[in-house]
Amino acid sequence: MPRQREPDLLPMQQPPLHGWPTIEKQRDCEHCHRKRKRDRILLVALIVFLLYLFGNVIFLNVRTTNLAPRTSSSSSLGGSSPTSPTASTSSAPSADAQQCISQYTLNAPTDPQGYPCSTCYPVLSAAPANFSDGNSQDAQTIANAVQFCGLRSMFEGANDQGQSALSNGGWVKDVRFCAWSGVRCDGFGRVSSLALSFPSVPANIPSEIGGLTGLTTLQLVGDTNVPGGSLPSSFTQLTALTNLDLESTGVATLDANLFSSLSKLTSLTLVKNSKMGTELPTSLFGINLQNLVINGQAIGSDTLSNIASSSSLRGNLKLLDLSSTSLSGPIPSAISSLASLVELHLDNNALMNPLPAAFPPSLRALTLANNTQLTGALGPGAAFCALAGLQTCDARGTGLSAQGACGSCRFA
User: Fold this and answer.
1) Could you give the 3-state DSSP secondary structure of residue 305?
2) Residue pLDDT, tens place only, 233-269
3) What share of the chain has pLDDT > 70, as a percent?
4) Three-class HEC string of 219-245
5) In what order do the strands lie in the sheet with 409-411?
């Protein structure tokens, strides 16, 4: 039987292999890029803020450490004795003072009206002037804070119109008070001059004005009512004052001893202060004034005699203006003892005869106008006619006349 042929076997073909699909890197979208950049900026800002907080904590800790009581001992052959903590830190600011210093340094520049002057002014005013806590900046900061509060109290005492006017001049918008209108400072940052006119004046002069201890010139011009009341007792702390000018105020009678503390005063101007009374403080006649101007307010008839008999004024007074002060009676003969007097103005009063036989030989200007009770004819060399250096002389509105030459004097 024939052998059957086996069928041919075909080789198995492997299915074709396809390569893995190519993986393409997705491109970042622009939005994602901006988000990552913003995240980095926020992270940097957070780090800076944390560093700022950390620095403040270290700053306050160092200041607190400086306040810790210190003890010291001095060695000697017999041993050592500890110094009292109170004695060693008596010149250091208190903890309250340190807090006020920090608040003025950190907060006041951006929030000057928020600085707690009512609390900090008395604390810093009482701080010892010679303290030493390792920070030389503190003395200047205390001085600045005290002066700032002294000036801010003037601002707060003004009415709405006054505060608006002061604000326009930069007041209390920052702590750079030397740039405020009406304020001038010396080279050490001390307020040396303060000049305010209505409406930019307080209703009453505040006690905090005593913090302006570097003040040399003070001028306040009111509306006859404000500033009013009495000068605060702290006014006597203005011991550097050389020029005081109060015009049209409602300030009451000045204390009898006021000028004992203001011994450096060389110029005093009082004009139209109707509530000040007629008697000048007795201490006024004990200082070395060079200029005394009182106009438009009544004074006692003995004022001229008190001035002429003052040993302090005799050799220093150069300008005496008592116009429109209701002076009555004769001019005292002692007027001739004012050896340095250059100007004498006594017009618009009720002066009467007799005239003194002599006037100060240094006189260059004399006004007696509108003293209608002064009468008589002056011969050559009589009274003020004898003054060779007299350049201005006004006797108009009086009953005086000249018989012969009387220098530059004008009559009738």
Assistant:
1) helix
2) 999 999 999 999 999 999 999 999 999 999 999 999 9
3) 80
4) EEECCCCCCEECCCHHHHHCCCCCEEE
5) 183-185, 191-197, 217-221, 243-247, 267-271, 291-295, 319-321, 343-345, 365-367, 392-395, 409-411
| pLDDT attached to residue 35 | 72
DSSP 123: H
State what percent of residues in the chain have pLDDT above 90: 72
Q: 307: buried, middle or exposed (CB in 10 Å: 19+, 13-18, 0-12)?
A: buried
Please name the residues in contact with 354: beta carbons below 8 A apart, sequence gap of 6 or more. Answer: 330
Are the beta carbons of 391 and 365 closer than 8 angstroms?
yes
355/347 Cα distance (integer angstroms) = 14
* pLDDT band, residue 6 (cuts 50/70/90): low
Q: Are 105 and 141 in contact (CB under 8 A)?
A: yes
Q: For residues 103 and 175, give the distance between their C-alpha atoms in angstroms, rounded to a whole number.
A: 12
Reading the block at residue 183, the tokens are 């304020």
Contact in structure between 283 and 307 (CB atoms under 8 Å): no
Residue indicated by tokens 């200047």: 140
Respond yes or no on whether the N-terminal peptide bond of residue 227 is cis (omega within 30° of 0).
yes
Task: Confirm if 259 and 284 have CB atoms less than 8 A apart.
Answer: yes
> What's the CA gap between 252 and 267, in Å, rounded?
20
DSSP string of 69-114? ----EEEETTEEEEPPHHHHTTTSPPHHHHHHHHHHHHTTTT-GGG
Supply the Cα-derived Rg of the chain in whole angstroms: 41
| Spatial separation of the C-alpha atoms in residues 1 and 97, rounded to whole Å | 132
Q: Provide the residue count of the chain.
A: 412
Neighbours of 85 (CB within 10 A): 13
User: Tens digits of per-residue pLDDT, 350-382?
Assistant: 999 999 999 999 999 999 999 999 999 998 888
**What are 159's two structure tokens?**
């009415």
d(CA 196, CA 221): 6
Q: Cα–Cα distance between 101 and 83 in angstroms, integer?
A: 28
Q: pTM for the full model?
A: 0.79
In degrees, rounded to 5, the angle at the alpha carbon of residue 200 between the alpha carbons of residues 196 and 204 is 85
Farthest CA pair distance, the chain: 193
Question: What sections of 284-386 are H helices per DSSP?
Answer: 303-308, 311-314
Both tokens of residue 281?
A: 């403080």
If DSSP codes are grouped into helix, strand and coil, which group holds residue 260? helix
